[in-house]
Amino acid sequence: MKQLHALITMVLLSLVMNINAQEARLVKLTNSNGMEAIVSNYGARLVSLTAHNWNGRLEPVVKGYNQLEDYKQDSTLGATLIYIGKEHTETLSSKVWEIVSSDNQSVSLRYITTEGENNLNGKLNATVTYTLSDQNALDIDYRITTTAPTTLQVTNGICFNLSGDMHRSILKQHLWIDTHYTNKLDKEQFPTNELQKTRLTPFDFTQPREIGERIKATINGYYHAFQLRHPDNMQKPAAILFDAQSGRAMTIYSSEPTLLINTHGAQSSGITLQPLHAGYNSGMEKVDNSLQPGQVFHGATVFLFTTDPPLIMKTK
To answer: Which CATH class is domain 21-315?
Structure first.
């Protein structure tokens, strides 16, 4: 497995380098426990991440490609996603970002749009920092400024499979979400801030459930936004994903009030958990996703990996 992972790394490096020989490259992050994350400045994306299973083996836990052409066809996978303006334009996932700084455990990337790019009146200055901590957590930190008023949504395109086998179904993995409501989506699949109760529906994950338990009751799997119960508290987990076979648990913490869950269909081998700046804060005030000159948008997401799942996720 280690040899395969090393080979994939080498292939990805050679392929991504061909995007732009002067700029595009990969950065490998390693923590003191041996976990590895590989970040590309092509779309400021996470292309690889390993985590320990119950007996200490490191295995991949995110989906990715070996060929550059696949990323061109599926540019959002693993990428930093910034949807700009009323048209929700997203193009930065196919751009080469500047690497501002990097060390063994952290890398910061930046992209500054040109005047008029993405139909903006001004410029957008976006920075994302990936940190692989010694607590076995992948931290993602976003900071964005603008020179002209705009609306935006910022999230990630990381697709997880905790089994260690990216072709294995995720339907037996357990999911818990800190929510009692979904946030209805519009025709463009963005939250409308119209809340709907999850109780007695296939979207009730207030108790841990296998993802596949009620997925057939959905139209084509889960693609739903959930209003979190503790939207202003990063000390409270937003969701927990658990794979009993590998023993891996992943706890998600977010500064955002909404979590979009996407199983990519009803027969899936991957799941994305995407925090969104939408919905309502702890005072039930509607969240404003507009950004003005002089303001700084700051968002943070933490994916914490353990092999000792929280009590709520332990199965008999």
So the answer is: mainly beta
